[in-house]
Design a protein that fits this description.
With 413 residues, the chain is of the alpha/beta class. The protein folds into two domains: 284 residues, Aminopeptidase, CATH 3.40.630; 114 residues, Alpha-Beta Plaits, CATH 3.30.70. It is 35% helix and 22% strand. The protein contains twelve helices and 14 strands. 49% of the residues are buried. Bound molecules: (2S)-amino(hydroxy)ethanoic acid and manganese (II) ion (2 copies).
Amino acid sequence: MTADTSVTVDGDRFRDRFDAFNEIGATEAGGVNRPALSDANKQARDRLVEWFREAGLDVRVDAMGNIFGRREGRDPDAATVLFGSHVDSQYNGGRYDGVVGVLGALEVVEALNDAGVETDRPIEIVAWSNEEGVRFQPDMLGSGVYAAEFDLEYAYGREDDEGRTFGEELERIGYRGDAPCEPGDLHCYFELHVEQGPFLEREGVPVAAVEGVYGFAWLNVTFEGQANHAGPTPMTMRRDAFVGAADVTKAVRELTATEGTDLVGTVGSVDVWPNAINVIPERVEFTVDLRSYDNATVAAAVERVRNEVAWAAEREGLDHEVEEIMRIDADPFDEGCIETVVEAAEDAGCEYTRLVSGAGHDANYLNTVTPTSMIFVPSVDGVSHRESEFTEWDDVVAGTEVLLRAVRKRAEG
Ligand code: HGY
Ligand code: MN
Ligand code: MN
């Protein structure tokens, strides 16, 4: 398909919509707080459904609360081109993570509507539920059920810190939809997303065709020691659960900071009980996030962390438990879809590069059910999962122009 510059995104319309949307759950520090299935997430969902309908899309919500907007093509029997991302956020998250991909997809539909373009294939845009996995682990739960990685019963039973289940909360916000959570006849999937790393900015390039996503494992580790008075208890009599957690944290850093490996590791969430200044910690529960583009590297790291937990427990006389919350394989995206993104960038006259994503995305799971690729735009200072997350609007528009062309290449003939 030759470059047709008559169909183009409206960057101002898109930015107005983006700013209005991010007023929902806005935080003082300029970020957003819209965790999955929260009241703010419901408000965001309601706004999306309203905008999807205004754009003439046929809206459906599936059993996991994934929201789809469908635009028919000339050939009703043709497989669907699906594209989108997520709108749930970290507790103190950024305005761009996920939202750029969902509102960018809507902007693509608006651009096609403005130009009166009818595609051959039907196209669908989507907002996946619970991509972040901060309130309900694991992450990418909505796309994971859709791709049959998890069953509905498991997903509905996932609990947040207050013991509320995913199923109850989905019901409470009115997004436990009737549509089955499973793929229809899909042609391919694209996802526009901010890079969430420093590479594109360092290269001075506005767009990347994403070749694949790191695999990763999430562990939940619990140490049980013994609470006691911080004063009179001799050091030789202590069973301090936090010392165990500190040892494992140090080991994760040593394990990942070794030269020549792409392995990264994070101890991100720590719960200490009783968490009092003058009481020896009795119980510490913490998470370990391990990632690499090589599955064997992740597997070896999980094994080593399990050993480090056992050794730390031994040294400090602690009981211990390691639960593997999730494991997802690294997977190269579909070469054909990567090529489509590259051609789309060339058609848009946009400088581009290729890279692999260290962040997980719904595209990980979509890639197991249909040919998939992603489009990245730069994150200023490589920052994400922080309220100061920022991407230059020209770069957002450049990425959306590439998404528009990639979708058209696949949906028109
Ligand atoms: O963890 C991730 O990479 C994604 O934000 N869920
Ligand atoms: Mn994201
Ligand atoms: Mn994220």
